[in-house]
Amino acid sequence: QLQASGGGLVQPGGSLRLSCAGSGNIFRINSMGWYRQAPGKQRELVASSTTGGSPNYADSPKGRFAISRDNTKNTFYLQMNSLKPEDTAVYYCTANIFDGLGYVDYWGQGTLVTVSS
Known about the structure:
Blueprint: E1 2-5, E2 8-10, E3 16-22, E4 28-37, E5 44-50, E6 56-57, E7 65-70, E8 75-80, E9 89-98, E10 103-107, E11 111-115
Parallel strand pairs: 2-11
Antiparallel strand pairs: 1-3, 3-8, 4-5, 4-9, 5-6, 7-8, 9-10, 9-11
Protein backbone atom coordinates (compact mmCIF):
# COMPACT_ATOMS: atom_id res chain seq x y z
CA GLN A 1 0.00 0.00 0.00
CA LEU A 2 2.95 2.36 0.62
CA GLN A 3 6.10 2.48 -1.48
CA ALA A 4 9.01 4.60 -0.27
CA SER A 5 11.67 5.82 -2.67
CA GLY A 6 14.26 8.51 -3.16
CA GLY A 7 17.03 7.38 -0.87
CA GLY A 8 20.64 7.27 -1.88
CA LEU A 9 24.15 8.50 -1.20
CA VAL A 10 24.60 12.22 -0.72
CA GLN A 11 27.43 14.39 0.53
CA PRO A 12 27.11 16.38 3.75
CA GLY A 13 25.22 19.58 3.09
CA GLY A 14 23.34 18.04 0.21
CA SER A 15 19.64 17.43 -0.30
CA LEU A 16 17.32 14.54 -1.02
CA ARG A 17 13.59 14.23 -1.42
CA LEU A 18 11.95 11.04 -0.28
CA SER A 19 8.61 9.99 -1.70
CA CYS A 20 5.97 7.69 -0.29
CA ALA A 21 3.35 6.63 -2.81
CA GLY A 22 0.12 5.03 -1.77
CA SER A 23 -1.72 2.51 -3.88
CA GLY A 24 -4.90 0.52 -3.62
CA ASN A 25 -8.12 1.68 -2.04
CA ILE A 26 -7.17 5.08 -0.73
CA PHE A 27 -10.07 7.36 -0.02
CA ARG A 28 -8.16 9.69 2.23
CA ILE A 29 -4.79 9.90 3.96
CA ASN A 30 -5.63 10.94 7.48
CA SER A 31 -2.12 11.29 8.82
CA MET A 32 1.36 10.60 7.54
CA GLY A 33 4.81 10.37 8.94
CA TRP A 34 8.43 9.55 8.37
CA TYR A 35 10.58 7.53 10.76
CA ARG A 36 14.19 6.53 10.54
CA GLN A 37 16.36 3.85 12.00
CA ALA A 38 20.12 4.20 12.12
CA PRO A 39 22.36 1.14 12.58
CA GLY A 40 22.25 -0.05 16.16
CA LYS A 41 19.58 2.45 17.15
CA GLN A 42 15.86 2.39 17.67
CA ARG A 43 13.44 3.68 15.09
CA GLU A 44 12.63 7.31 15.72
CA LEU A 45 10.08 9.78 14.46
CA VAL A 46 11.41 12.33 11.99
CA ALA A 47 8.31 14.21 10.92
CA SER A 48 4.56 13.80 10.97
CA SER A 49 1.48 15.60 9.81
CA THR A 50 -2.27 15.21 10.06
CA THR A 51 -4.86 16.57 7.69
CA GLY A 52 -5.57 20.16 8.60
CA GLY A 53 -2.86 20.26 11.22
CA SER A 54 0.63 21.67 11.42
CA PRO A 55 3.55 19.35 10.83
CA ASN A 56 5.66 18.12 13.70
CA TYR A 57 9.39 17.54 13.54
CA ALA A 58 11.92 15.92 15.77
CA ASP A 59 14.49 18.32 17.16
CA SER A 60 17.38 17.08 15.02
CA PRO A 61 15.86 17.64 11.58
CA LYS A 62 13.81 20.70 12.54
CA GLY A 63 14.52 23.56 10.16
CA ARG A 64 16.19 21.26 7.65
CA PHE A 65 13.45 18.80 6.73
CA ALA A 66 9.94 19.42 5.46
CA ILE A 67 7.03 17.04 5.10
CA SER A 68 4.45 17.66 2.42
CA ARG A 69 1.79 15.84 0.43
CA ASP A 70 0.15 15.72 -2.97
CA ASN A 71 -3.40 14.46 -2.52
CA THR A 72 -3.93 14.13 -6.26
CA LYS A 73 -1.20 11.50 -6.37
CA ASN A 74 -1.79 9.92 -2.94
CA THR A 75 1.85 10.66 -2.30
CA PHE A 76 3.70 12.45 0.44
CA TYR A 77 7.26 13.61 0.65
CA LEU A 78 10.13 14.40 2.95
CA GLN A 79 12.41 17.13 1.65
CA MET A 80 15.75 16.88 3.40
CA ASN A 81 18.21 19.74 3.17
CA SER A 82 21.58 20.43 4.78
CA LEU A 83 22.04 16.74 5.37
CA LYS A 84 24.48 15.58 8.02
CA PRO A 85 26.25 12.25 8.49
CA GLU A 86 24.05 11.62 11.52
CA ASP A 87 21.02 11.65 9.22
CA THR A 88 22.24 8.35 7.77
CA ALA A 89 19.51 5.78 8.32
CA VAL A 90 16.81 3.73 6.72
CA TYR A 91 13.80 5.98 6.35
CA TYR A 92 10.31 4.55 6.63
CA CYS A 93 7.05 6.17 5.72
CA THR A 94 3.78 5.47 7.46
CA ALA A 95 0.25 6.64 6.99
CA ASN A 96 -3.17 6.23 8.49
CA ILE A 97 -5.46 5.70 5.53
CA PHE A 98 -9.21 5.54 5.15
CA ASP A 99 -9.87 2.79 2.62
CA GLY A 100 -13.61 3.16 2.44
CA LEU A 101 -14.28 0.75 5.26
CA GLY A 102 -12.11 2.04 8.05
CA TYR A 103 -8.82 3.60 9.05
CA VAL A 104 -5.75 1.41 8.63
CA ASP A 105 -2.09 2.06 9.44
CA TYR A 106 0.39 1.19 6.73
CA TRP A 107 4.18 1.20 6.57
CA GLY A 108 6.44 1.47 3.57
CA GLN A 109 9.41 -0.81 3.08
CA GLY A 110 12.11 1.73 3.89
CA THR A 111 14.65 3.56 1.80
CA LEU A 112 18.30 3.97 2.73
CA VAL A 113 19.82 7.41 3.06
CA THR A 114 23.59 7.60 3.40
CA VAL A 115 25.24 10.93 4.08
CA SER A 116 28.95 10.67 3.55
CA SER A 117 31.80 12.37 1.77
